[in-house]
Amino acid sequence: MASGRNGTIYIGVTSNLPVRAYQHRNGLVEGFTKKYGCKLLVWYEAHDTIEDARQRELRMKKWKRLWKLSEIERLNPNWTDLYETIA
């Protein structure tokens, strides 16, 4: 989730992306995404297990910001909100 192009980025994991993205978009989740206005789904990837997804999340949270921006732009160079493609 992001607040906008090159804005604040949030990385998380869920077993139900459409529901979780909806919650973030509508400010239903207290915490980081609500505080910083991270309402745009600009990147995601699927994993076979929640454990695999969690491991990837933990690795990515240690990345430098530039690496995260590069990963987003590799999939979504225009920072288009991808929510409609998964809902």
UniProtKB/TrEMBL annotation:
PANTHER family: BSL5627 PROTEIN, UPF0213 PROTEIN YHBQ
Signal peptide per UniProt: none
GIY-YIG domain: residues covered: 1-70
Alphabetic keyword roster: Endonuclease, Hydrolase, Nuclease
GO molecular function ontology, one term from the record: endonuclease activity
PROSITE patterns xrefs: GIY_YIG (PS50164)
Species this protein is from: Sphingomonas panacis
Organism domain of life: Bacteria
Name of the protein described by the UniProt record: Endonuclease
